[in-house]
Amino acid sequence: MNLNSLRKSFPVVKHSLFANTAAIGLMSEELLEWRQEHDLDFLIGGSDMKMESFQMISGVRDTLGKFLGCDRNRIALSPNFSLALNTVLEGLPKDNNILLLETDYPSVNWPFESREFKLTYAKLDENVERNIEEKLNNEKIDVLAFSIVQWQNGLRISGDFLKYIKEQYPDLLLIADGTQFCGAFEFNFDDSGIDILGGSGYKWLLSGTGNGYMLFSERATDRLRPKSTGFNSVNGNLEAKGEFRLAKHLEPGHLDSLCFGSLDFSVKKLMDWDIKNIEKHNKGLMDLASQEFLALGLLNEGVVNRKTHGNILNIRGGDELYLYLSNNNVCCSQRGGGIRLSFHLYNSESDINRIVEILKSAPSSLASIKN
Question: CA 53 to CA 49: how far, in whole Å?
C-alpha cells in the first residue's frame, strides 16, 4: 500500500508542512466521523448507549493486544502514561534501586525522583547502551526505566540490547515509555524483554488525547503491589472486592468511551495500513531527512548515525530559526536546545525537500548551516 495516498485523510498536511507528530499526532477525517457518530449516539441513546459502550472499551484491550503483542488480561487502560506510571510506582517497594537516563522525558524520571527510591543515572548520548551496561555491571540495580525513543532528539534504545540485558540480568525490571515509539515501529511486547510498557495514544497512534495504556509481563505481576482500587476494578461486581488482576488496579474508575473508542479506531486503522508498511515508509523519510540535514551541518552525527533511531530529528537552531520556519508554514517544536522535527505516515519526501529549501533560504545568521 502506498501511504502517500493517505495524506488526503489528514487535512492539516494540505495547508502546512507538518513535522510535529512528536508533539501531537494528527486526527484523520475518518476518526472525526467516528467521534461525531459516537456523540450523536449518546445524544439520542443516553445511558443505554453508555452502558453498551463498556463492552466496546473492553474490546480495546483485544485491539492493543493484537497490535502490540500482549495478552489482553495484562493490558491496563489509563487516560495517559503519566497517571499510569505514578499508579504503578505506588506498588513498587521503596527499597528498589532505580537506574534512569539523564535528561529523559520528565514524565519518566520525575515520578521516581519524587519518591524515596535510590536513584542512579546513565549518560544519555550515542553510547547509551554501553553507559547502561556499565552501570548494571558496577552497581546493584533493581529497575531500569527509560523511553524507547527519546523525546528531544529521537535516539532509540536498541531492541536487541534490551533482550540482551534481560538475559544477563533476569531479575532486572524493565519499565519503558513507548509513547514516541508505538505506532511508528513494529513491536511485540512479549518478545521484547520489557516488563512494563506504557504510552499515551495522542502522538504516533493518532488517537487524540485522553487515552493511554500499560502492558505487563507475567513477571511484573509478582513485583508490584499497587493499592489503587475502585468499583471499576471489579467491573461493578460487589462480591469481587480485592479479587482482580494487576492491570485493573490502574482502572479504579470509569473510562471515557469517546477517548478509548478513538484509540481503538485509530489502532485498527494502523493495522489496516500495516505497521510494516508504515515503518518502511517512515524509514525512507528519516533516511532522506538525515542525509539532507547532515549535509547542511544541522545534526549531531553521533546520534543519527546509530543503527537504530526514532522518527525524530533535532537540528541546530535557536529562536530566530524557529520563527523563520514557523513563518514559512513549518510546524515543529523547540526542544533540547534545538528545533525538533518529526515525520510520520502522512508525511512525504516532498515535505522534507520543501523544509530543506526553506532552511537553505534562511539568513546565515539563523542557522549553523556551514558549520
Answer: 6
CA–CA separation, 188 vs 207, rounded Å? 20
Q: Which residues contact 65 (CB under 8 A, 6 or more apart)?
A: 71, 72, 75
CB 304 within 8 A of CB 316: no
Torsion angle, alpha carbons of 259, 60, 200, 325, to 10 = -70
pLDDT bucket at 176, cuts 50 / 70 / 90: very high
Give the integer Cα–Cα distance in Å for 313 and 340. 6
Distance between CA atoms of residues 185 and 275, nearest Å: 7
pLDDT of res. 367: 57
Instruction: Specify the domain boundaries for CATH 3.90.1150.10 within the chain.
Output: 3-28+274-361
Pairing type for strands 173-177 and 143-147 reads: parallel
Please answer whether residues 286 and 306 qualify as being in contact, where contact means their C-beta atoms are separated by less than 8 angstroms: no
- Please provide the CATH number assigned to the domain covering 3-28+274-361: 3.90.1150.10
- Distance between CA 71 and CA 301 in Å, rounded? 39
Per residue in 8-22, pLDDT (tens digit) is: 999 999 999 999 999
**Which is it for the CA torsion 176, 180, 181, 183, positive or negative?**
positive
pLDDT tens digits for range 268-325: 999 999 999 999 999 999 999 999 999 999 998 888 788 899 999 999 999 999 999 9
In 3D space, the residue among 297, 85, 291 whose CA is nearest the CA of residue 179 turns out to be 85
pTM (2 d.p.): 0.94
- Residue 206 sits at φ, ψ, to 5 deg, of 60, 40
Handedness of CA 310, 31, 253, 244 (dihedral sign): negative
Q: Which fold has domain 46-272?
A: Aspartate Aminotransferase; domain 2 (3.40.640)
The pLDDT tens digits for 20-66 are: 999 999 999 999 999 999 999 999 999 888 778 788 899 999 999 99
**Partners of 335 in beta bridges:** 338
β-bridge pairing 312-315 and 338-342: antiparallel
Rounded Cα distance, 153 and 280, in Å? 20
Residue type, 136: L
